[in-house]
Every structure is written in C-alpha cells, then in structure tokens.
Amino acid sequence: MSAYTDGLKSTYKRITSNSYNDIRWAKIYKLTPEGFKAKIQRIKGVIAFDKMPWAYKNEKHWITVAPYLIQKAYASEILSSDDKSMMLSLSAKNQTFTSKNYTPGQSYKCVILEKETEGMLVEAGLDSRFKNGSQYGQVILSDFWNQHDFTLAKVGDEITLCFLEHLEDGILAMCQPSKYTHWYRHKPHNLIGNTIPVTVHKEGTETLLKGYDHFNSELHMDNILHEKVSMQQLELYFQNLKDKEVISCLVSDIDHSTHQLSLLLTPEALTQLDN
Q1: Whole-angstrom Cα distance, residue 260 to residue 263?
Q2: What are the backbone dihedrals phi and psi of residue 86, each rounded to the nearest 5 degrees, phi first?
Q3: Residue pLDDT, tens place only, 53-88
Q4: In this structure, are residues 28 and 72 in contact, taking their beta carbons and an 8 Å threshold?
Q5: Using CA atoms, how far apart are residues 16 and 228, in angstroms rounded to an integer?
Q6: Residue 70: how many other CB atoms lie within 10 Å
Q7: 267-274 and 231-239 helices cross at what angle (nearest 10)?
C-alpha cells in the first residue's frame, strides 16, 4: 500500500470522526448531472443541487453558473460516508453569507440564466463572485437602451446591469446601464405637462428633435390637438425649423419602449402661427 493511499485513509478517518471539530471546507471541482463533486482535504464527495447553499427554481440554472463555482469552497457537513470507496455525501446548506446591499443606479456583473421574448432572468450573485450567495435579477426588453444588445445576448453570457429597485418577490429590477444614464437618472416622466427647450437637428432632409438636446422627441402634427391651427401651418412650421434652433414645446407623453418624448407646440407658438 502506498504512502499516498495511507495518507488518504488517515485523512478520511480523521474528517469523518465524530470528534472532528474543525470546519469541513468542501472545494468544488466538477459539475455532475445531480450536483457537484467536491473535495475535503483530498477526500472526494458529492454535493447534490438541493444540498447547495442556495436554491434555484430551475436546475438548469446550476448548469449555467457551474463554471463560476469551480474552486469555490463551502462549509459542509457529512451526510453519509462509504468506508470502502472513501466517498462522502455532503451538504453545504448551512453555509452562511453576509447580505449584499444593492444601490440604485450602480452597475453589477450578472450572468444570464433565462431569456424570453420580453425579458431576461439573471444571477446578480456573480458580481461578488457568489461571496454573498445568490440573487435573482430581471431586466425587460424596454429597459435596454439598445434593443439590438438584447437580441444578441444569450443564456450563459455575462452582462452588466444597473439596479433599479427591489420587486415584491425579492428579485432585483434592473436595466442596461446606458438606459439608466440616458433615461432613469433624468426621470423624463417628471417632464409630462411641462414646457421644455427642444433643439432642432437637421440631417439631410430629415428633421430630428431633442428634448433638452438629449431625449429623442416627436412633435405631434395634428391640428385637432393644436386648436385653431391648420395642418398646412403645422407642416410649414416644422419644415422651416433651422438646424440648432431651440424651440419650446409641451411634453404630452413619453414612450419607455422607444425612449421618446411626445411634444405639442406651446400656446405661445400656436398664437404666432395663427397670426
């Protein structure tokens, strides 16, 4: 019998003894269909998915996060042991974590667990390398500033998202960082009913409007909304706007999916047109 085997037997006997008082740190080294293979001081064992420190609603989530858990060590207890094979059945459910505080507007690294037509479920525990355990987050399609990014993203990808708020079920509501910078931080919904400066941008034959020279905007060309002014007057006014000209408009609505403000001409502007 080799010295290596003798050493394993000695270690196995020591860590399975009822008198062993130290923490049994199980280091994960491989994913299996039922859970993870782990070692306690070179002694092999298995931690089933339902014996891991946190739970997922879908076992497929374990497969997605598995690459990030390799070489992670968790305090464990021995559920059963086989003296002949020196294999251990382990539980890491009693592993404790300190809670992580999420700050609105701050970005966190996540991994995509599920993707559907209108949104994603992500694992935000990746940001702390799971030192604080697991934390579900979700981001809906309209909370991507660039929806092409949503189309390209796939399950297993790392993604950086901004925290918005805690939902009732404890899940984090999140958004793309650029959406937070360009939209939530400026709180455009507070602009509804207010008059704002709008900058005109001429690009060839196209006329673009930017509220506060920032938000994409659209001027309603509807004489029903603009009383006493004809469609011809409205269209002529719009066509005659000059590049970099700043006009005042009333914000009537916002569209969160297109990140666009809906505008009406102010009563003062309508009076000038009518005259």
Answers
A1: 10
A2: 60, 35
A3: 999 999 999 999 999 999 999 999 999 999 999 999
A4: yes
A5: 89
A6: 12
A7: 100
